[in-house]
């Protein structure tokens, strides 16, 4: 739908990858890239996006261009956009609730946003055409738009994304320290540990900026977390099995009732994609490997393959456990795997 996508990055190797993968049409410095831009998408860690807003404010932007971002927190970037950008330039904050613990252009996937919630945080007095332009762009990815104010967005994601990230990383950190005394901690770290801590592999710089731009929302949650952990500790100390079981039951019931995104016409649930070399026998090798481990593969397809380039296989499983087992198996076999949540 866009006539041309121009990529800007501090890292020339990232731009080369983006060109090779045909994600951008050409690379250019910022001042050249924004000439005639209809939409400018800031897809950098949050503080970098704020710095880029300052850079943009110094440039002669096309009068009708709309600026958006994809950062994990919204209050700071929206406040700065309002202060920094010229009044005639619209800024529509955005946050795709999709992605993974992987970063970099190689973790990109053309169907990543399909069925995902994509939050937009326009000001209430924003120009309708500006919101519509970003809405059209986002809808083309298959995402479902949710309009929120930046404060509410930041409060919600603090609980469903930022606190879990901190807890996962803290858990890994604790076990890593134990692992210095006894290497068997790492040997025994199996499925459950890996499931709970997957996100802890995320980009540290990105998460640093998320914590620093959403501290107001995250810190009260950390206080509450400490209170709840102490309570659990007291139940164990008092041998209060009923309280412990009630706690686990409530958690399991709520977790089980979460809506499964991705079901339906566009994409069945429980999928992952695997980056594979474009060479004969690859599909057979992967199917055989999964079969040997009795993993219930429902379907296998080629998502994207260009001659002489890497391709992507899309694997569909009957259930979540099979998908998670497959991800672990393929990753331990050296494949790069992306979960399609
Ligand atoms: N990783 C994920 O799953 C998700 C990330 N986000 C948000 O997306 C944003 C980017 O995250 P990722 O794509 O994961 O990071 P990334 O590290 O994969 O990509 C960031 C890119 O920006 C470039 N960059 C950094 N500073 C720059 C600057 N000043 N000028 C030009 N280029 C610059 C880097 O070289 C890199 O290529 C973050 O704000 C994050 O909160 C949002 C949803 C999901
Ligand atoms: O890894 C996952 O499952 C994620 O939830 C990815 C993610 C990371 C950061 C975001 O701001 C939004 C989504």
Key features of this structure:
single chain, 341 residues, alpha/beta, 6-phosphogluconate dehydrogenase C-terminal fold, 3 domains, globular, binds 1,4-dihydronicotinamide adenine dinucleotide, binds 3-(4-hydroxy-phenyl)pyruvic acid
Describe this structure in words.
The protein is an alpha/beta fold and 341 residues long. The chain has three domains: 6-150, NAD(P)-binding Rossmann-like Domain (Rossmann fold); 153-256, 6-phosphogluconate dehydrogenase C-terminal like domain (6-phosphogluconate dehydrogenase C-terminal fold), CATH 1.10.3660.10; 270-339, 2-Layer Sandwich (Alpha-Beta Plaits), CATH 3.30.70. It is 48% helix and 16% strand. It has helices spanning 12-20, 30-33, 46-57, 75-84, 128-139, 150-181, 184-188, 191-197, 204-213, 215-237, 241-256, 282-292, 320-332; strands at residues 6-7, 26-27, 39-42, 66-69, 90-96, 117-121, 144-147, 271-276, 297-304, 311-317, 336-340. The strands form three sheets. A five-stranded mixed sheet has the order 3-4-5-6-7, sandwiched between helices. A four-stranded antiparallel sheet has the order 9-10-8-11, covered by helices on one side. Helix 3 (46-57) runs parallel beside helix 4 and helix 6 packs across helix 10. The longest helix has 32 residues, at 150-181. It starts with 5 loop residues before the first strand and ends with a strand. Belongs to the prephenate/arogenate dehydrogenase family. It comes from Collibacillus ludicampi. Residues 271-341 form the ACT domain. Residues 1-266 form the Prephenate/arogenate dehydrogenase domain. Pathway: Amino-acid biosynthesis; L-tyrosine biosynthesis; (4-hydroxyphenyl)pyruvate from prephenate (NAD(+) route): step 1/1.
């Amino acid at each position: 739908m866009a006539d041309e996508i121009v990529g800007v990055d501090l890292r020339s190797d990232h731009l080369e990858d983006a060109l090779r993968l045909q994600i951008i049409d050409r690379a250019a410095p910022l001042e050249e890239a924004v000439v005639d831009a209809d939409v400018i998408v800031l897809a950098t860690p949050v503080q970098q996006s704020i710095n880029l807003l300052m850079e943009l404010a110094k440039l002669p932007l096309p009068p009708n261009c709309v600026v958006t971002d994809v950062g994990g927190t919204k209050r700071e970037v929206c406040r700065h956009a309002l202060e920094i950008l010229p009044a005639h330039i619209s800024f529509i904050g955005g946050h795709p609730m999709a992605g993974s613990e992987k970063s970099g252009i190689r973790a990109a996937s053309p169907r990543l946003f399909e069925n995902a919630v994509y939050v937009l945080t326009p000001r209430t007095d924003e120009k309708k055409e500006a919101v519509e332009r970003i809405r059209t762009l986002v809808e083309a990815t298959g995402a479902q738009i949710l309009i929120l104010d930046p404060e509410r967005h930041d409060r919600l994601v603090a609980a469903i994304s930022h606190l879990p990230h901190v807890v996962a990383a803290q858990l890994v950190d604790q076990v890593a320290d134990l692992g210095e005394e006894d290497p068997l901690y790492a040997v025994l770290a199996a499925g459950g540990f890996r499931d709970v801590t997957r996100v802890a592999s995320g980009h540290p710089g990105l998460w640093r900026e998320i914590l620093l731009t959403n501290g107001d929302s995250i810190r009260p949650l950390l206080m509450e977390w400490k209170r709840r952990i102490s309570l659990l500790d007291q139940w164990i100390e008092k041998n209060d099995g009923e309280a412990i079981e009630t706690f686990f039951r409530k958690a399991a019931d709520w977790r089980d009732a979460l809506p499964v995104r991705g079901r339906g016409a566009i994409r069945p649930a429980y999928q992952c994609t695997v980056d594979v070399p474009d060479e004969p026998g690859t599909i057979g090798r992967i199917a055989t490997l999964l079969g040997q481990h009795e993993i219930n593969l429902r379907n296998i397809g080629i998502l994207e393959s260009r001659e002489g380039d890497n391709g992507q296989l899309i694997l569909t499983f009957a259930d979540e456990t099979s998908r998670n087992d497959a991800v672990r198996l393929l990753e331990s076999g050296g494949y790069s795997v992306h979960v399609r949540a």
